Please model this.
Amino acid sequence: MLIPLDHRSPLPLYRQIQDFLSGEIRSGALPAHTRLPATRNLAQSLGVNRLTITTAYEGLAADGLVYGRQGSGTYVAPLSEAVTGPTAPVGASQDWPLWQQELLSHTWLPAQYELDRMSAALDRPDAISFAAGMGDSSLFPIDDFRRAVTDILRRDGRAALSYGERAGFAPLRATIARIVTERGIRALPQHILVTSGSQQGLSLVARLLLRPGDVALVESPTYAGAIDLFRSLDVRLAGVPVDAQGMQVDRLEALLTTHHPRLIYTMPTYQNPTGTCLSTARRRQLIDLAGRYNVPILEDEFAGDLHYEDAAPLPLAALDPGGRVIYMGTFSKMLMPGLRLGFLVAVGPVYERLLAAKRVDDLSSSSLIQRALEAYITVGRYQAHLRRACQLYGHRRDTMAEALRRYLPAGADWTTPAGGLFIWLRLPGGLTGQALAPVAAGEGVGFAPGELFFPGGRSQPYVRLNFAEHPPERIEEGVRRLGRAVVRCLSTGSGERQSGDVLHNEMPAI
Ligand code: PMP
Model:
């Protein structure tokens, strides 16, 4: 649980924690009978003394908001009208049936909830958040897409509003096959499976190939949504360190022999969050190792076409001698995430199994949206949109790098990525992302703290900054605020520090 703390505030820390939790309980965000984190764990994750947490919990108990169970922790009390006040949500004062209470005893929540919570804490009207994982919504081709939907409804009528083909609308699969062929992948429409976003692709692959207790190898750091998904399936994660050339493939063999993973999940191109691109030599080595150890690779190329220098190296799937790599793409970053359209490219028996899993999962992706997307792409608008996005985002990337040079104190470090959406910033002085977040929120700027991206979840001196979403003036102003927050943290000594020289390739335990 991330609780924004302001170390400069005259309000004592225990009171800030108590007030935050009190708000969460009264609003219903923490429902009755939810178990609060153990005092030791919360103290550790917030970097405060355990007594601070105990005092906060005691305050909540005195207000009738929590109750203790002998030996098992502190729980949210059912809200009485006296404590809910006029803002209580409908049903918040109910005592839930036992089966619902049992659900509440699971305290695990996706790490991405923390991101939502932190965004909510950024409540200034002029706040600038670099936390998002998408491009600039002002580029969304709304008029073109509206025309495409209208044309499709006129052209296809009822077919557009019926259940679609399981594997996806055939002409769209043919179009996707053409798009990935341009990336060097030899794919036919029958190798394409349209998914409801690539998050569904990831989920289908993980549920098909992994059982609880299995190990998956992931980059460390990696995409937070993948960590959440694997965790939800009780899959254990082993992290492969990342350096400037992407996953350190020479560390892989040792992990393959020790952990016997059942899947390698990787983003070789403009990795999320580090922006690194795996070198071609490492790509070949990775495929070779996966073949020798009989481990499937899931390649997540979520932003492969967003390049600001030369085109990205060939994807792993293009180097695959056959059936080793499942390739995953999405229209979320290159076009619009609200389409909820992504795709898998798979050859061999795995394709049919994924198709069956897709059927079980959601029957099919939206027929109307697939048809509209296909119409939009075929008239050449997609390529034009991509060119525009690359031009704009490349300029914004440079603006952010320049602003970081200007406003961040010495010791801050980053590499300007050749594509994608993110700059991965190493904070100076061992300052952690989590410690910086509340001070930065006070300055009116947000980001995704590095902690979210490490399978081990420990404090990390990193933050992920999205450079694509905002126009240059806002980037400049946001980075100026960020610089101020960093300087303030360093000069007041506030915030938790990461001791020692921890690199972003620190390997978490599985
Ligand atoms: N992979 C990566 C690396 C991502 O960043 C995201 C979105 N944040 C996804 C997959 C899933 O995106 P979508 O479901 O919108 O395609």
